[in-house]
């Protein structure tokens, strides 16, 4: 760890989760935040809503959720009959027509995680009122946030509109307003909810880290973002965090093994995802198979260049670039290659931000199943590549979350 600022008695010390530096900063005022001067990672912030306000927002999301998930968002007029598409309807039809595993992946990101996220916020508010220490709830909140993908589903709706209009007349139902508001409120809750501040609120620092001990470096817990001096020990005499009981000082080799294992598995899955057909459309009994790339080309043929660009970025560019970037960072760690550290951190933040958007294609498939799978003149079926693609997205997201950026900074500091 590196101390990048002189200590003062009134200042607070915190370890940076990205570069492992020990940063000194004064007490923050309203609407202020402290960031690391080395890697610009946010250390602390006062720009957040109270838990009471966030709970009200989460309650509004849960009230809107049945209308957003179960009621029709889009409709088409197919052979004189009106066919509706909803989030739950698409998942259910995908599951009952021979694609249960693909449907389960969509269910996790589009239904289970958004509902769980809102429920966790409400349960945290109840814990606050009852004076309960919700250690497990706070840990779960940190893990669930990246998997809530309502905003991605909103973009999938727009892509589906352009894809379906070549087969039938498209209509927008009024319940789409509920879905849009649910997506916007969920995004707002993401922005205004600060898990690090909640940890400090439920577990206030009785002995705040105000100076670096002379005998050893301060400890830092990556689970609850806690900087402290004295660690606790479990029954196996392993150092644990005194606030969340998570294990400290996990071996870098284990972290790298987890990152490599999930990344290699993701690479294996991405190969059939790009080769096999992603969807099959039967028009008058004649099948038309689309791979990821041919789907993009079909949008170009329709003249929908912007939609083609969005699908290409989400389905092809993002998954491939994530794999290439992670391979590059892992090679830098293993061979201790020193490159521009700021550029490497930008690449890592990029894969953290864009990884979830690769689920766009699976959401479009679920909506298409709800709209066109009728076994008449037009029939739509999910291709075998969908499952491999969904698993590849999940594995690469897990690989990115397992990678420890401090390993890059150690190379930079040594050299």
TrEMBL record:
Key words of the record: Cell inner membrane, Cell membrane, Membrane, Transmembrane, Transmembrane helix
Top-level division of the source organism's lineage: Bacteria
Transmembrane parts of this sequence: 54-74, 101-124, 136-162, 174-191, 260-283, 303-333, 354-373, 385-403
Membrane topology: Multi-pass membrane protein
Subcellular location: Cell inner membrane
Major subcellular site: membrane
Keyword Cell inner membrane: yes
Family statement drawn from the similarity comment of this UniProt entry: Belongs to the PqiA family.
NCBIfam families the UniProt entry points to: pqiA_fam (TIGR00155)
Protein name per UniProt: Inner membrane protein yebS
């Amino acid at each position: 760890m590196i101390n990048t600022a002189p200590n003062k008695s009134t200042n607070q010390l915190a370890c940076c989760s990205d570069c492992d530096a020990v940063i000194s900063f004064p007490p923050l005022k309203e609407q202020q935040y402290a960031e690391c001067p080395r890697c610009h990672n946010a250390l602390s912030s006062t720009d957040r809503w109270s838990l009471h306000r966030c709970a009200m927002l989460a309650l509004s999301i849960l009230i809107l959720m049945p209308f957003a998930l179960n009621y029709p968002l889009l409709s088409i007029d197919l052979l004189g009959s009106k066919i509706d598409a909803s989030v739950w309807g698409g998942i259910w039809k995908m599951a009952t027509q021979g694609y249960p595993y693909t449907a389960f992946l969509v269910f996790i990101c589009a239904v289970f995680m958004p509902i769980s996220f809102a429920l966790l916020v409400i349960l945290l508010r109840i814990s606050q009122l009852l004076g309960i220490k919700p250690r497990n709830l706070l840990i779960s909140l940190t893990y669930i946030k990246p998997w809530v993908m309502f905003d991605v589903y909103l973009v999938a709706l727009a892509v589906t509109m352009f894809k379906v209009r070549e087969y039938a007349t498209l209509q927008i139902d009024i319940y789409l307003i509920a879905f849009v508001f649910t997506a916007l409120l969920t995004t707002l809750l993401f922005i205004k909810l600060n898990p690090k501040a909640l940890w400090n609120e439920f577990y206030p620092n009785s002995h705040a880290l105000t100076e670096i001990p002379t005998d050893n470096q301060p400890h830092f817990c990556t689970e609850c973002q806690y900087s402290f001096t004295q660690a606790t020990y479990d029954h196996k005499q392993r150092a644990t965090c005194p606030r969340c009981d998570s294990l400290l000082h996990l071996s870098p080799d284990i972290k790298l093994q987890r990152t490599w294992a999930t990344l290699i598995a993701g690479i294996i899955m991405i190969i059939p995802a790009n080769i096999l057909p992603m969807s099959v459309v039967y028009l008058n009994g004649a099948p038309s198979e689309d791979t990821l790339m041919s789907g993009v080309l079909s949008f170009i043929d329709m003249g929908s260049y912007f939609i083609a660009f969005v699908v290409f970025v989400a389905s092809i560019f993002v998954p491939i670039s994530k794999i290439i970037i992670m391979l590059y960072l892992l090679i830098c760690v293993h061979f201790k290659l020193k490159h521009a550290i700021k550029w490497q951190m930008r690449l890592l933040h990029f894969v953290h931000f864009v990884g979830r958007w690769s689920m766009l294609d699976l959401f479009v498939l679920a909506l298409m199943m709800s709209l066109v799978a009728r076994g008449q003149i037009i029939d739509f079926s999910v291709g075998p590549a969908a499952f491999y693609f969904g698993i590849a997205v999940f594995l690469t997201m897990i690989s990115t979350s397992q990678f420890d950026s401090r390993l890059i900074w150690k190379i930079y500091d040594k050299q």
